[in-house]
C-alpha cells in the first residue's frame, strides 16, 4: 500500500557529498542506486519541477512539448478505453492526463516516494512500484505504453526494458519514450555558455555515476548513442516509426538543469522514440 506523504515526513537526508565520476555500473547496481536517489530526492524534484509539469499534463521533456499537440500516442479521441502503461511515471502527471482522455492508465515507478507524490496529487488509477526491467504484468495486457524520461536513461540494460514493454503490449500496440538527447553527453551539463563547448566524446558510453565514500553508486545515468538506441529498439523486436527532436519553443523561458533556451535554440535536448509492436 502506498501512503500519501505528510508535511512532517521527509525522505532520508543524505549527509555526504557524492563524488561524480564515469565508470561501469551494472543493472543491479544501477537499479539500487536510482531507487535510493529518487526516494531521497522525490520531494525536492516535485517542488522544483511540479509546476512546469502540471498535475495533469503530459509533457515529454524540458522543451515543454505537450502530448496535446504532439499526439505521439495517437489522436486524443482514440485514447478512450485504451489500457496504457506509463513507465517511470514519477508523480504520474502523464497518467492523470491519459485518464482525463478516458484511457485506463497504470503508473509504474521504481521509487516508492515518487509514487507517494502520485497519491498525494490524486487520481483513480493503479500505481505500481516495480523495476521497468521486470514488469509484473501478463503478456499483451496493454494497448499502449509511454515513458517521459522514465527508466530508460537510468538502466544498464535498455534491451531488457524494451523487451519487457514489448511483451506486455498487444500486437499493434505502440511504445513512445523520451530520453536525454544523446548529443548532450558530449557537452557539460550546464545551461549557460559553458554548456556549448564539446568536452567529452559522444562515443564514450561509460556511465555517469555519483558514488559515496565507499565507492557505492548513489546515482547512475547511462549513455547510448542514437545508433545504439535504434539497434536496441530493433533487438527487442519493436519497429521504430519516428524519432522526434523537439525544438525549443519561444514561449519557454524556463531552465531545467542543463536545459535552457540558450542551448535549446542550438542543440537538441530530448529524443522521443516512437515504436510499434507488430
Ligand atoms: C525524470 S523522472 C520522469 C518522471 C516523470 N515523467 C517526470 O517527468 O517527472 C524519472 C523517473 O524514472 C524512475 N525510474 C528510474 N529508474 C527506473 C527503473 N529501473 N524502473 C522504473 N522506474 C525507474 C524514477 O524513479 C523517476 O521517477
UniProtKB/TrEMBL annotation:
InterPro entries: Methyltransf_11, SAM-dependent_MTases_sf. Residues 85-177 form the Methyltransferase type domain. Its EC number is 2.1.1.-. GO terms for molecular function: methyltransferase activity. Keywords: Methyltransferase, Transferase. GO terms for biological process: methylation. Residues 1-40 are annotated as: Disordered. The keyword Zinc does not apply. Residues 1-11 have a biased composition (Polar residues). CDD domains: AdoMet_MTases (cd02440). It is an enzyme of class 2 (transferase). Pfam families: Methyltransf_11. This is Class I SAM-dependent methyltransferase. It comes from Streptomyces justiciae.
Amino acid at each position: 500500500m502506498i501512503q500519501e506523504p505528510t508535511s512532517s515526513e521527509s525522505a532520508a537526508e543524505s549527509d555526504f557529498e557524492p563524488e561524480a565520476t564515469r565508470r561501469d555500473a551494472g543493472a543491479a547496481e544501477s537499479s539500487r542506486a536510482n531507487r535510493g536517489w529518487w526516494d531521497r530526492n522525490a520531494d525536492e524534484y516535485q517542488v522544483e519541477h511540479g509546476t512546469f509539469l502540471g498535475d495533469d499534463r503530459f509533457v515529454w521533456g524540458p522543451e515543454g512539448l505537450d502530448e496535446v499537440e504532439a499526439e505521439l500516442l495517437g489522436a486524443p479521441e482514440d485514447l478512450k478505453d485504451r489500457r496504457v502503461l506509463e513507465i517511470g511515471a514519477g508523480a504520474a502527471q502523464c497518467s492523470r492526463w491519459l485518464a482525463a482522455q478516458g484511457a485506463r492508465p497504470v503508473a509504474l515507478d521504481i521509487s516508492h516516494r515518487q509514487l507517494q507524490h502520485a497519491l498525494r496529487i490524486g487520481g483513480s488509477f493503479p500505481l505500481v512500484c516495480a523495476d521497468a526491467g521486470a514488469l509484473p504484468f501478463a503478456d499483451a495486457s496493454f494497448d499502449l505504453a509511454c515513458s517521459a524520461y522514465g527508466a530508460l536513461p537510468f538502466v544498464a540494460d535498455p534491451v531488457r526494458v524494451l523487451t519487457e514493454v514489448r511483451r506486455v503490449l498487444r500486437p499493434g500496440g505502440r511504445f513512445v519514450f523520451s530520453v536525454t538527447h544523446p548529443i548532450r553527453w558530449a557537452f557539460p551539463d550546464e545551461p549557460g555558455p559553458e554548456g556549448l563547448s564539446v568536452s567529452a566524446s559522444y562515443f564514450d558510453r561509460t556511465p555517469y555515476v555519483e558514488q559515496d565514500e565507499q565507492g557505492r553508486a548513489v546515482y547512475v545515468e547511462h549513455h547510448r548513442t542514437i545508433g545504439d538506441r535504434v539497434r536496441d529498439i530493433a533487438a527487442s523486436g519493436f519497429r521504430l516509426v519516428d524519432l522526434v527532436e523537439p525544438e525549443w519553443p519561444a514561449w519557454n523561458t524556463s531552465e531545467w538543469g542543463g536545459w535552457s533556451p540558450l542551448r535549446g535554440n542550438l542543440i537538441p535536448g530530448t529524443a522521443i522514440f516512437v515504436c510499434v509492436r507488430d
